[in-house]
Design goal:
By secondary structure, this protein is of the alpha/beta class. It is built from eight helices and five strands.
Length: 241
């Protein structure tokens, strides 16, 4: 950011408008920068948030809910088969049925939500396997916490580390023992409209968008300008509130 010709005031305005869920290009037009510069600014902000997640995203504890969805993200028509995790450019359509895969351009996103607390984590997982989801839980949820999920097999290993309960959604919303994922499911009703605004996200950048959304939701009690100032603080000094 030190080498940027964009003024600090415009950076703060840009971050604030990003927090609203707006795309980079129209914001860039408003502050008088090119589309290329606007995209670079947005990417720089998201990278800073993702790189310093341990600073602003404490581990969840108490009662935690988990849920998952699949999001589309390809290579935007570019051949990046020589890059790590890349492949040849796709042609059209993402018609894979059932649970998608990262390789098939329908990546798994798992959410960890603190029931009654502020913590919200949205994380990209390249694998939907049991070990992958346990690894995600260990990264974001304190051991010994209560964790409620649905009955999907991918969550089966959670019981080795957490007080794990599950609810079978085809039969009930809340189990007899009180397990439910209603808070986590409610988060998707906010996530999906926000996500749809960014059409054609390359999957190599999905994790950056998810970190940004995790930040927005975890600090939803802060004002938009406070969140924008915090994001710029990361860029300039690597500091947080």
């Amino acid at each position: 950011m030190e080498a940027s010709n964009v003024s600090l005031r415009r950076w703060v305005y840009f971050a604030r408008e990003m927090d609203k869920g707006r795309a980079a290009e129209p914001i860039g037009e408003e502050i008088g920068v090119t589309e290329k510069t606007a995209r670079r600014m947005a990417k720089t902000i998201r990278q800073a948030l993702h790189a310093q997640r341990e600073e602003w995203l404490p581990k969840l504890s108490g009662e935690v809910e988990a849920d998952d969805v699949h999001v589309k993200g390809g290579q935007q028509g570019r051949d990046v088969s020589e890059q790590e995790g890349g492949r040849a450019a796709r042609t059209r359509g993402l018609s894979e049925r059932g649970r998608g895969t990262y390789a098939g351009d329908r990546s798994l996103v798992v959410s960890w939500v603190e029931r009654g607390g502020k913590g919200r984590v949205f994380e990209l997982r390249r694998s939907a396997g049991k070990k992958s989801l346990l690894s995600s839980a260990l990264a974001h949820v304190k051991k010994g916490s209560k964790v409620d999920t649905d009955t999907w097999n991918g969550y089966r290993l959670l019981g080795e580390v957490y007080q794990h309960r599950s609810v079978k959604h085809s039969e009930e919303y809340v189990s007899e023992e009180g397990a439910h994922c209603n808070t986590a499911e409610g988060e998707w009703s906010l996530f999906k409209p926000w996500w749809r605004r960014f059409r054609g996200i390359a999957k190599r950048y999905l994790h950056l968008y998810l970190s940004h959304h995790s930040f927005r939701r975890t600090y939803r009690d802060r004002s938009r300008i406070e969140r924008a100032q915090a994001m710029i603080g990361f860029l300039m000094l690597g500091i947080f509130w």
